[in-house]
Amino acid sequence: IPLSRNTRCTCINISNRSVNPRSLEKLEVIPASQSCPRVEIIATMKKNGEKRCLNPESKTIKNLLKAINKQRTKRSPRTQREA
Amino acid sequence: IPLSRNTRCTCINISNRSVNPRSLEKLEVIPASQSCPRVEIIATMKKNGEKRCLNPESKTIKNLLKAINKQRTKRSPRTQREA
């Protein structure tokens, strides 16, 4: 059952499962627009390039963004000076 | 001057300019990995598909994500019930 018939959203099913930041290749955030009235968040997994739509309201996203930011600080302490 | 020679990061120049959420087509967040030791945030603009790398440490990102979330709530109040 598509969420909306009049629009061209990318996501049909939205997962509330959590995503391991280490398995994540990238995260795409697509703002609401004329072609889709809701924000879409698409996680692409490293393993097989699987794309998974995430609920922007979920804690998953907040945790994920937090984890990604921590990762940066840990692995590349020079970022701040270089920026 | 590339930020690092041994890695294949997508971003060479990182902008600290703010981005209007209405001009934004999508935002990509790429976690740190073996091929690039830092988080990369790539904004694709609606106008000409221009890609702009943003500083993950900047307020721009936080404001942008906030604005995108607000946008959703305003335009699609049903999201919560549908999810």
Name its key features:
alpha+beta, OB fold (Dihydrolipoamide Acetyltransferase, E2P), homodimer, 83 residues
Describe the protein's architecture and organization:
2 copies of one chain form a homodimer. Chain A is built from 2 helices and 3 strands; from the N terminus they run E-E-E-H-H. Chain A is an alpha+beta fold and 83 residues long. A 3-stranded antiparallel beta sheet of chain A has the order 1-2-3, with no helix packed on it. In chain A, strand 2 (40-45) and strand 3 form a beta hairpin. The A-B interface holds A 3, 14, 16, 21-22, 24-32, 37-39, 55-57, 65, 68-69, 71-72, 75-76, 79-80, 82-83 and B 3, 14, 16, 21-22, 24-32, 37-39, 55-57, 65, 68-69, 71-72, 75-76, 79-80, 82-83. Strand 1 (24-30) of chain A pairs antiparallel with strand 1 (24-30) of chain B.
| Radius of gyration of chain A, CA atoms, in whole angstroms | 15 Å
CATH fold-level topology of chain A: OB fold (Dihydrolipoamide Acetyltransferase, E2P)
Global geometry of chain A = globular
At the first level of CATH, what is the class of chain A? Mainly Beta
Give the overall average pLDDT of chain A. Answer: 79
Spatial strand sequence of the major β-sheet of chain A = 1-2-3
Proportion of residues in β-strands of chain A = 15-25%
Count of all domains of chain A? 1
The main pleated sheet of chain A reads as: 3 strands, antiparallel
Q: What order do the SSEs of chain A take from the amino end to the carboxyl end, as H and E?
A: EEEHH
CATH architecture tag of chain A: Beta Barrel
